[in-house]
Design goal:
It holds the Pfam family FA_desaturase. Belongs to the fatty acid desaturase type 1 family. The two termini are 27 Å apart. By secondary structure, this protein is mostly helical. 53% of the residues lie in helices and 3% in strands. It is globular.
Length: 337
């Protein structure tokens, strides 16, 4: 049972897929909003700022600004490399940590899971296990104190502020109760978690910097500030805009009773993750959008992987289910296509 979903059948199942090809065999319920949650009565816990994160994020964004200044001085190959690193990093989050590991919206064979884990490490947004845990909590307790980036606390908090302060106690408490057995069983996820610090040093900082400096003689400073630090900051902010802007600006054609919105600008920047009213209404859809590949490079990537035999069992919501839902709970702004 997948709550009105259907499995896209254009890929032929490979009977030789082994036990490591963990996917969506089980019912995923931890990404469904919990209507029974109630905030605890009494005074709110004090806000505790993590000054180390404040300093590091400030330095990163100042470095990114300097990287923008250096763009005209960079070699064309370096700019191409920076875009490639951006795309790889983003896919590690969108196709990997989000649609595969958080929602189990499709299955990925071992080579694809390894590629996505490497790409996710380049993005440096916490390891896959922690990212998926927090994202499931975000869906299950959306816009409450148990939501790690509760948008009801304002744009800044939802965008970056949640990373600059200690988590609300409810986030920690509810996060411990989520079913994460599928993540524990995934050898790729647990390998990345065990070796995360060494891997982020290599994939997020060393590789993006060294490749243009070593292979085509780019300046070390341009290599460091453009494809490394600027690219890293851009990927972070593209992801954060899904938590902030896509929860505040846009229409709600599928469910007007929830905060997430449809935001095409965020979808373009986050390679397909801005159709957020749809996604929170149907979190198990592998495309995170009713309209497939439109403004959605992540869906294109997953479809390509399916064509190559590296992915399968993509879950989609039936057109009848979508129509019924938008007529029942939508804000009237639905447009087909």
């Amino acid at each position: 049972m997948y709550r009105g979903s259907q499995t896209v059948g254009t890929c032929v199942e490979n009977p030789t897929i082994n036990a490591e090809d963990i996917g969506a065999d089980r019912e995923m319920m931890d990404d469904v909003f919990d209507t029974t949650y109630r905030e605890k009565k009494g005074p709110r816990p004090p806000m505790k700022i993590v000054w180390r994160n404040v300093i590091l994020m400030s330095l990163l964004h100042m470095s990114a600004v300097y990287g923008v200044i250096l763009i005209p001085l960079a070699k064309p190959a370096t700019l191409v490399w920076a875009v490639l690193c951006f795309m790889l990093s983003a896919l590690g989050v969108t196709a990997g940590a989000h649609r595969l590991w958080s929602h189990r919206s499709y299955k990925a064979r071992l080579p694809l899971r390894m590629l996505l884990a490497v790409s996710n490490t380049m993005a440096f947004q916490n390891d896959i296990y922690e990212w998926a845990r927090d994202h499931r909590a975000h869906h299950k307790y959306s816009e409450t104190n148990a939501d790690p980036h509760n948008a009801m606390r304002g744009f800044f908090f939802a965008h970056i502020g949640w990373l600059l302060m200690r988590k609300h106690p409810d986030v920690i408490e509810k996060g411990k109760k989520l079913d994460l057995s599928d993540l524990h069983a995934d050898t790729v996820v647990m390998f990345q978690r065990r070796h995360y610090k060494k891997l982020i040093l290599l994939m997020c900082f060393v590789v993006p910097t060294v490749v243009p400096w070593y292979f085509w003689g780019e300046s070390f400073y341009i290599s460091l500030y453009v494809p490394c630090l600027l690219r890293y900051a851009l990927v972070l902010n593209a992801t954060w805009l899904v938590n902030s802007a896509a929860h505040m600006y846009g229409n709600r054609p599928y469910d007007k009773n929830i905060n997430p919105r449809e935001n095409k600008l965020v979808a373009i920047g986050a390679i397909g993750e801005g159709f957020h009213n749809y996604h929170h209404t149907f979190p198990y859809d592998y495309s995170s959008s009713e309209f497939g590949i439109k403004y959605n490079l992540t869906t294109c990537f997953i479809d390509l992987m399916c064509y190559l035999g590296l992915a399968s069992d993509r879950k989609r919501v039936s057109k009848d289910t979508i129509k019924a839902r938008q007529q029942r709970t939508g804000d009237g702004s639905h447009r087909s296509g």
